[in-house]
């Protein structure tokens, strides 16, 4: 077709509707129907492959190019196809503020992904607090055999949970398939930031399981769901979870300065979710305490050994004879060990209380100094940092 000088090119409506008229290279448009307004009454119109209008009700199926599958909304309110592929999980969480406990009740799952040759699975649920050492705080339910719709009705409890933990930690809940002859297989997971919970109020959840979160780099597996995929979030997690100070469990300690005994009473009450040090998945823990500086090396006290447990109860109390005015110059070192016969005992974790401590450890020490004859109990986080030059004997 030849054009005379001064004559403008005309474009048919069919050609106009088949191209993107925005500045830049000409590109095919994804949806021609985007150019048409929605009808105020009734359903929006759909456009056929030929570009002609037809009522949407006459053609309920939609082509792949018109509505991507990931944008479809499930009737149950989920926005992902994983809901049907992986299943749903019903559970409830309760933060008992007075007793520093987080109760996790795993109720049931529905429509789990088949993992075995018989079209079923042997599911169990595993809990993990993030950030935190994996061995120190993993809890799990019993395994139910040959079912895709298991009912556990089982409550798992984390002890030693503080208000600070509720602000910064996330609970990872994973559903796995147990396999006797191979590694257990992952089915799906969900993550709940604990700041969503209100103290002393049970919150119920019915959540679609997600695929395992992608991990890249050290410490990134502990990124909360709402923060992952952002560079700043990964940097934040790396800073808060320094591997040199990895959490190894919790310990409940009581302090009291007794005017009658003229000394400091140190109570070792219990530990929770200690790191497993033995091949059987447990430890044989005991606790040692030192009041330093200790020039005569007579300040060591040691509890009894508790066999095969990660949640030992000691309920032992030690007395250090010392003037109240001298306590401000002292430091209390508390270490937890795994007892081994015939070889060196393994260090599990430790904590230091005193004038040079920080956070809750410093506050606990000051509260003891300010409140004579009053027993003050606090949970403290154990780390794998060995205080001072403590020996394992």
List the helices and strands and how they pair.
Elements: H1 13-17, E1 46-47, E2 53-54, H2 82-86, E3 88-96, E4 101-110, E5 123-130, E6 139-140, E7 151-159, H3 163-168, E8 170-177, E9 185-193, E10 203-208, H4 231-240, E11 247-258, E12 263-272, E13 285-292, E14 301-302, E15 313-321, E16 331-338, E17 346-354, H5 359-370, E18 376-383
Antiparallel strand pairs: 1-2, 3-4, 3-10, 4-7, 5-6, 5-8, 8-9, 11-12, 11-18, 12-15, 13-14, 13-16, 16-17
Task: Explain what this protein looks like in three dimensions.
This protein has 393 residues and is mainly β. The protein has five helices and 18 strands. It has helices at 13-17, 82-86, 163-168, 231-240, 359-370, and strands at 46-47, 53-54, 88-96, 101-110, 123-130, 139-140, 151-159, 170-177, 185-193, 203-208, 247-258, 263-272, 285-292, 301-302, 313-321, 331-338, 346-354, 376-383. The strands form five sheets. The protein has a four-stranded antiparallel sheet with strand order 7-4-3-10. A four-stranded antiparallel sheet has the order 6-5-8-9. Strands 15-12-11-18 form a four-stranded antiparallel sheet. The termini are far apart. Mean pLDDT is 77; it is low at 39-83 and 214-244.
